Structure formats: C-alpha cells, structure tokens
Amino acid sequence: MATNVTITDIAKELNTTPATVSRALNNHSSISEETRARVWEVAKRLNYRPNSIATSLRSGKSHLIGVIIPSAKINFFGSVVHGIESLASEHGYNVLIYQTNESREHEKKGIQAFLNARVDGILVSMAKETHDYKHFLEARDSGTPIVFFDRANEDLDIASVVIDDYKGAYMATEHLIQQGYKRIAHIAGPQHIRLFNNRLRGYLGALQANNITIDSSLIYTGNISIEAGKTAIEHFLSLPNPPDAVFSVEDFTALGALKALKEHQILIPEQFGVIGFANEEFGEHTTPSLSTLDQQTVLMGEAAFTLLQEQINMKTSTQMKAKKVVLDPIPVYRQSSTRH
Fold first, then answer.
1. Which residues contact 114 (CB under 8 A, 6 or more apart)?
2. Which residues form the HTH lacI-type domain (predicted)?
3. What three-state secondary structure class fits 307?
4. How far, in Å, CA of 91 to CA of 223, rounded?
5. Across 33-47, 67-81, 134-148, 204-218, which has the greatest mean pLDDT?
6. Residue among 321, 318, 337, 327 nearest 261 (CA)
7. How many Å is the Cα radius of gyration of the chain?
8. pTM, two decimal places
9. In the predicted model, is pLDDT for residue 59 greater than 90?
10. Which pLDDT score, from 0 to 100, does residue 178 have?
11. Are strands 330-332 and 292-294 parallel, antiparallel or unpaired?
C-alpha cells in the first residue's frame, strides 16, 4: 500500500467522515472506544502516516530540536549529544544535528536550516571562528528558544550550560605543582572563546596562589588540535629555560604534546608532566595514559535540553531571564602527570 494514505482514505474504508477519523486518531473524548479501535485498525492496515507538518501547524510544535556542534570527530560532543537525545526522546522530541566544522558560515547555515524546519528550539556549541553573534540573536528574537552548551557567550543574554573552566584549569595546574613540577607551561586556545580564556585564567590563578612567578614565554596561544600541541612543545623546548610540565587547554592538543615529547625521547611523567581537559575517550588508551578533567558530558546534554524545554514551554521565552548552569569538572589523574 502506498505511504501517502490520508484520513479521507480511512474514512471511505469505514464509511464515515474525515472529521471522525481525525478525532479518533487524536483520541478525542467524543469518539467511542469501539470507533477509535476500528479507525486505528484500518489506519495500520493501510499503513497510514500522519502528516507531521500539518500536525505541527495545528499544535504549534514540531517536536523537533536542532543541535549545532563544532565537530562530530570529537567524542566530547558526541557524548553531550547522547545526553541530549536520551532526555529529548523521553519527552517526545526528535533531534536534528548540524556540524559546523568550526566555521561561522556553516553555523549560520545550520541556524537557518533549523528555522526553516520549524524546530521548537536550538542547542548550540559555538564554532571557533565565530566572532559575530548576530545570527544567534536574530534566531532568538524571532521567538525560537536557544541554549548554549560548553562554548557560550554570557554577553548575549542567552541561557547556557557550561563547565567551571576556571576551577578545572586551577585544579589541573595545582595538581602539576603538587607532583613537584617547577616550570609549568600552558597551551591556550583562541581567547575570544570564553571557556578558553577561563582556562588560561585558572592556570594563572593557580600559579599566583602558589607564589610561582608567571612567565609569558610559557604560554603558547594557538589553535586546538594535535598539530598545535606538537608545535607548542617545539616552541617550549627551544626556550633557554624550558618547562617541565604542560597544562593543555584540551585533550587533542595534549595528545600532540605527548607525541612531540616522545619524538624528543623525553620521559613522561618522570621528566615532563602533561595534563589535558575534556576526558576524551582515547586518553585512557595512550601510553602513558593521559591525565585530564572530565566535563560531565552526559549531564551537560541533559541540563541543556532541560533549559531548552523550559523555554519551549514558556510562551514568553524571549522575556525569560537567561539561566546559566555551571557544572563541576572531575579530575582524572592518570600516568602522564603522576610522579608520586
């Protein structure tokens, strides 16, 4: 049977009206149980599929949410999406995913694609290239709820779920200090993104709290990638007084650092300590295993969906005060930084 069966076809089969069929399919109280059962039996036999667009127009909801992520290659984002999808499914929502590949132009296209699909709301982790945030504000002002996760901009008055990046960076740096490392470097991320700036500040805060002089030559600001980690280590090792440990802004950059140190036959952690941030899945399988900070990714996804659903259920979402949920990082100290 063709899949474009309509309620009119069901009505003809039962010798009743399309209105009666429609009410039966929507479990209207005016329709008897017997009639409802007959309608559903015929609907299943004819392979009837509801018109989701028509249904969403009537209800004002599509039961779709859009999720924009910078990269599907990074396990962190996949894990957050898992948290989003599990809770969204419980509440009857389907999830559409758009990958920006860290491009602002792709991000804009993703927002527009979701608006065209009439999603009920959008969850976003911003691209590294994004400096202009007009597309987020336009979407929000059009009445579509938006919530940021992980990468957020607090100046936009848009709800967000983030990790306490300052605290995590402070913990990572202090851990290296406690392990006896004397000159601790930092591989930083693009500073226009708030979370990377907070991680730099956490690193600096831990040094100051432990009366360690800040040396700007031990801060390498670049991209976030394996290659950036390798380049940073080459820079650090070329210094007259090189560091003996590094706190990397995230795990892929930390992996690059591990690779470069091995190429120079530097023993980890005996001669050089390394710690990352994010708890990517590969970290426990590297040699040595990578110390890191876990970002409670599934909880982040669930919290982001919960904030979004609150806005969807409020007719005046644009007037709602933007809530901010801050999650605690969990230290995962492995072989790459543990000397004692």
1. 66, 68, 96, 98, 122, 144
2. 5-59
3. helix
4. 38
5. 204-218
6. 337
7. 26
8. 0.76
9. no
10. 97
11. antiparallel
CA neighbor of 107 nearest in space, from 57, 71, 55: 71
Whether 273 has a pLDDT exceeding 70, the answer reads yes
What pLDDT sits at residue 73?
Answer: 80
Q: Please name the fold of domain 7-50.
A: 434 Repressor (Amino-terminal Domain) (1.10.260)
- Amino acid letter for position 111: I
Tokens of 157: 């008055």
Q: What percent of the chain has pLDDT over 70?
A: 94
Is the pLDDT assigned to residue 60 strictly greater than 60? no
> What dotted CATH number matches 165-295?
3.40.50.2300
- The pLDDT tens digits of the residues spanning 144-185 come to 899 999 988 877 888 999 999 999 999 999 999 999 999 999
Residue length, the chain?
A: 340
Buried b (16+ CB within 10 A) or exposed e, 258-295: bebbeeeeeebbeebbbbbbbbbeebeebebbbbbbbb
Are the folds of 7-50 and 165-295 the same? Answer: no
Choice among 26-30, 31-35, 117-121, 272-276 with the minimum mean pLDDT: 26-30
Are 187 and 157 a contacting pair, CB within 8 Å? no
Distance separating alpha carbons of residues 173 and 204, to the nearest angstrom: 9
Which residue is listed with tokens 């996804």? 301
Q: Which CATH architecture has domain 62-163+297-328?
A: 3-Layer(aba) Sandwich (3.40)
DSSP state of 50: -
